[in-house]
Design brief:
- The complex is a heterodimer of chains A (375) and B (539).
- Chain A is an all-alpha fold and 375 residues long.
- Chain A has one domain: ABC transporter involved in vitamin B12 uptake, BtuC (Orthogonal Bundle), CATH 1.10.3470.
- Helix content of chain A is 73%, strand content 0%.
- Chain A has 17 helices and no strands.
- Chain A is globular, with a radius of gyration of 22 Å.
- Chain A starts with 11 loop residues before the first helix and ends with a helix.
- In chain A, 49% of the residues are buried.
- Chain B has 539 residues and is of the alpha/beta class.
- Among the domains of chain B are: 128 residues, Rossmann fold (3-Layer(aba) Sandwich); 184 residues, P-loop containing nucleotide triphosphate hydrolases (Rossmann fold, 3-Layer(aba) Sandwich).
- A six-stranded mixed sheet of chain B has the order 6-7-8-3-9-10, with helices on both faces.
- Chain B is globular, with a radius of gyration of 24 Å.
- The two termini of chain B are 23 Å apart.
- The chains are: A mainly alpha (375), B alpha/beta (539).
- Chains A and B meet through helix 9, helix 10 and helix 17 of A and strand 1, helix 1, helix 10, helix 11 and strand 18 of B.
């Protein structure tokens, strides 16, 4: 029905600011009702949530540490999305990417620090990309739906990691499936260390140099997607495959390229978790960041700026939620997960729920239209 | 060719005129700042065929969407059979006896005719009883309106002309007294169009009312009783067809005098630029789409390919452009042979000096979600002129886009506007500008003016002639016979994937071409002039 008059789009600010804000407000209103239902004061709960996320340097550090992971996975989802693909496999790609980082830190720790960081970055990127490459290749050449294959690859990644940690990489002579701790040389600087060098004292937190790398990645993704001919090809293939073919752009090649980059970005979660925080290889360090990244990308409108902001919001929810559960015992951890779930539901899954109404508000807007609505 | 005169007296010369079938009074509709319909009033008497013409964006479709319940008017009223009615949804419209036949059919292709007709009015959860009733009703309708279609035929197997009949039957089955037809002849051969007009004539004599949206002035003159002309959201004329002329209507539509014929001198063909030999193309389902096609296009001439859409012209054009793969044969551009059947893509073909205005501008020529300037580099994004190191050179791209918008009168001349937000004609100009400004030796043009308004058609035609006169080779594919006849120096006619024959422009007339488009070779055609070609439709 494309023929019938096409209304103009809503302004950018409404798309990027108003719609997410309204969704967020709705999410918090429903969360407030849930908190009321269990007999607590929602205002007080919000207070603890905010204080828990931003109340002191340590809390801020934790918030940003969570944010780092979510920027990586959010960017990962966004890059694939620009090629028209839904990469649900961020979780598995992060897992395998972390394996890549871990292997570099375990076996190449004789390298000087100045070299081991780029090699670890490369390791995470390559392993993550390789894990994404297989579903991408199958999608591009065989049409196997990438949503299905990436989900399955999450499970394969989990099983593979269990096998490797239990049978191969486990530190000899111990029960817990963890590798030996990395050499001091093969760990990332934490933020309090780095700031300490320039004379700024901040509280200790897991926040480390990978946060800066996440911001750099955001900028690079922006340049790549919007300012290079390769990004142009990916977007063309994602928006309109026939136009891509017409323009001499191979959709298959771009699917593989975009999803591989997507996997590489997800793999960087390993930099933060493995090289930065845990400083050893272990199980389950991805903790659902790959999935939350989908909500982050949706809420951030697949733009790096939006993704950083959305990642900050979800990071604050992770950290503030933990503090909230600690301060108000009746609001258990599970309740916090419910609140996070509601935000994901409204900001992510129901992202387009109110859009038609908001768009029609913008489309009308004249005095004549007040009548039209009154009819 | 269209010899069906409106039946005298059918237009309501009864003593006490019954209420009009449809009456629109003071309809207004805004989309944001755009006043799409401004105080539109129109009366369609019962039992008449009423034409609505206007350029793209004139508001015809909006008006019909309001009548059919897709939109609601901001103000104004709709009267059906004299009663004021509120039409909120297409369902309301159907209940009031208004039916619509869309330009692109809304049929479920793997279903039979009967199944399609009862779709949405099955009458119960078990099909059997409903089907039996529907079969009876359908036979009755077909007899009454001369709409022969086998109820058990699968729609996908039917030629387009018959599919359209199914759409009409669907509307009648739902009790339509007023039928809206949106550009119904775009997909038909002249003969099929004739048949359609005979059907419409029957409908009119049986007392049905028909509203015909078209941009073909010839059809308006041939079949309608009254005609409404829209321009820029306003109704500029409501006239009886017999009191007007094509020239006058064209002028009313555009608001100025229009040249309906293309002015051009004789061609000066030079060296062959495109040579195609025994080209074969087989589609995914294994159906042969292009069969042993051979021809050449020389510098300085326009070769037109006529044919009913779906007879291989699109595939031929795409195969030459490199967007689909041919199976065998030869293609040579500027003397360079292309390895047919191997991985030659559109990019490789462009490097040989080919440019391509694709048939489907929305799905192929543009990325509608991109800004205009991003569409300007589609296919040429690797050009060093558009790149500065690793990054795209935005200044250069914006300047190029702005320059092309100026040179081709694209409105609004805003390189940052989304491609989707330009009108069809301006979208087409964006593509034509992009491809022509590369100064190619060979230009492939598919449906250059489909859904484009008259002013833009004139402009694009003049540009094509200018390119030809500059010594470029042009291959034109169009389903508009008028267009092929007036632009081409030579005309090839395709039917069922093969070239049926070639006609020089001077020898081309609608009848000859029409017969060839139905698969009858020119030699056969001359011997069978006594028969009625209208009775056959391509299988």
């Amino acid at each position: 029905m494309s023929k019938f008059g096409r209304p103009s789009d809503i302004p950018l600010w409404a798309n990027f600011v108003l719609v997410p804000l309204i969704n967020l407000t709705l999410a918090f209103m429903v969360s407030g009702l849930v908190v009321l239902a269990i007999g607590e004061n929602p205002i007080e709960a919000v207070g603890w949530l905010l204080r828990g996320a931003f109340g002191n340097q340590e809390f801020i550090g934790y918030t940003l540490y969570y944010t780092t992971n979510l920027i990586f996975t959010g960017l990962a989802v966004a890059v694939a999305f620009h090629c028209g693909l839904f990469n649900i496999g961020g979780e598995g790609q992060a897992y395998i990417g972390g394996l890549g980082v871990g292997l570099v830190c375990l076996y190449l720790d004789f390298l000087p620090f100045g070299l081991i960081v780029p090699v670890a970055i490369l390791g995470g990127a390559l392993f993550g990309a390789a894990w994404a490459y297989v579903p991408a290749y199958l999608q591009a050449t065989r049409g196997s739906h990438i949503v299905i294959t990436t989900i399955m690859f999450n499970f394969i990644a989990a099983s593979l990691m269990v096998y490797l940690m239990v049978n191969v990489l486990i530190r000899p002579g111990q029960q817990s499936p963890e590798s030996r701790p990395f050499d001091e040389n093969a760990t990332l600087w934490s933020m309090h260390e780095m700031l300490g060098w320039v004379g700024i004292e901040i509280a200790r937190s897991p926040l480390n140099a990978s946060f800066l790398w996440a911001l750099i990645c955001g900028f690079l993704v922006y340049l790549f997607i919007w300012r290079t001919r390769w990004g142009y090809e990916i977007r063309t293939a994602g928006q309109n495959q026939r136009a891509a073919v017409y323009g001499g752009i191979s959709p298959a090649r771009n699917i593989v390229l975009a999803v591989s980059i997507s996997g590489a970005l997800a793999g960087f979660v390993g930099l933060n978790e493995i090289m930065g925080v845990q400083q050893r290889l272990l199980l389950n360090f991805t903790a659902g960041y790959g999935f939350t990244g989908i909500a982050v990308a949706l809420m951030g409108r697949n733009h790096p700026v939006g993704i950083v902001l959305a990642a900050l919001l979800f990071g604050a929810l992770y950290q503030g939620g933990a503090e909230l559960a600690f301060e108000i015992p009746t609001i258990t951890r599970d309740m916090v997960v419910v609140i996070q779930g509601l935000v994901i539901l409204f900001a992510g899954a129901l992202e387009n729920m109110l859009r038609p109404q908001i768009e029609s508000l913008f489309r009308r807007g004249g005095p004549a239209d007040a009548n039209a609505q009154a009819e | 060719m269209y010899d069906l005169k409106p039946a005298d007296g059918a237009g309501g010369e009864l003593s006490a005129p019954p209420p009009a079938a449809i009456e629109l009074v003071g309809i207004n509709k805004h989309f944001g700042p755009v006043h799409a319909n401004r105080d539109i009033s129109m009366t369609v008497p019962r039992g008449t065929i009423h034409g609505i013409i206007g350029e793209n964006g004139a508001g015809k479709s909006t008006l019909m969407s309001i009548l059919y319940g897709f939109y609601q008017a901001d103000s104004g009223e709709i009267r059906v059979n004299g009663e004021q009615r509120l039409i909120r949804t297409p369902n309301d419209a159907i209940h009031m006896g208004i039916g619509m036949v869309h330009q692109h059919f809304m049929l479920v292709e793997p279903f039979t005719v009967l199944e399609n007709v009862i779709l949405g009015s099955e009458g119960g959860s078990l099909l059997h009883a409903g089907e039996a009733r529907a079969r009876e009703e359908l036979a009755h309708l077909e007899a009454e309106y001369n709409l022969d279609v086998s109820p058990d035929a699968v729609v996908a197997d039917l030629p387009v002309g018959l599919q359209q009949r199914v759409e009409i039957l669907k509307a009648l089955f739902r009790g339509a007294d007023t039928l809206i037809l949106d550009e119904p002849t775009g997909v038909l051969t002249p003969q099929e169009a004739d048949q359609l007009f005979r059907i419409l004539d029957t409908l009119r004599t049986q007392g049905k009312t028909v509203i015909l949206i078209t941009h073909k002035l010839r059809e308006i003159m041939a079949i309608t009783d009254n005609v409404s002309v829209m321009r820029a959201g306003q109704m500029v004329a409501n006239v009886a067809t017999r009191d007007t002329s094509r020239e006058q209507l064209a002028e009313l539509m555009v608001g100025r005098k229009v040249l309906l014929r293309v002015d051009k001198g004789p061609a000066n063909p030079g060296r062959p630029v495109l040579q195609v030999g025994n080209l074969n193309m087989v589609d995914r389902r294994g159906v042969s789409r292009v069969k042993d096609v051979s021809f050449q296009v020389r510098a300085g001439e326009i070769v037109g390919i006529a044919g009913v859409s779906g007879n291989g012209q699109s595939e031929l054009l795409s195969a030459i452009a490199g967007t689909i793969r041919a199976r065998s044969g030869e293609i040579a551009v500027n003397g360079t042979n292309i390895k047919v059947g191997q991985g030659v893509d559109a990019h490789d073909m462009r490097e040989l000096g080919l440019a391509h205005v694709p048939e489907d501008r929305i799905h192929e020529g543009l990325v509608t979600t991109f800004a205009a300037n991003e569409c300007t580099i589609l296919g040429y994004h690797d050009d060093p002129a558009y790149n500065k190191g690793l990054l795209l050179d935005r200044t250069a791209i914006l300047n190029t886009c702005e320059g092309q918008m100026g040179g081709y009168d694209v409105r609004p001349p805003n390189p940052l506007l989304k491609a989707a937000n330009f009108s069809g004609g301006n979208q087409q100009k964006l593509i034509v500008a992009r491809e022509m400004e590369r100064d190619p030796d060979l230009l492939l043009v598919g449906q250059p003016t489909r859904g484009v308004d008259i002013g833009a058609i004139e402009f694009i035609h003049r540009r094509l002639i200018a390119m030809r006169d500059a010594g470029k080779a042009i291959l034109l594919v169009s389903v508009e016979l008028d267009e092929v006849m007036s632009l081409s120096d030579r005309i090839l006619v395709m039917f069922d994937g093969a070239i049926v024959g070639e006609v020089a422009q001077a020898d081309a007339d609608e009848r000859t071409l029409g017969l060839m488009m139905a698969g009858i070779r020119p030699d056969e055609a001359s011997t069978s002039t006594g028969g009625t070609p209208g009775g056959t439709s391509p299988a």
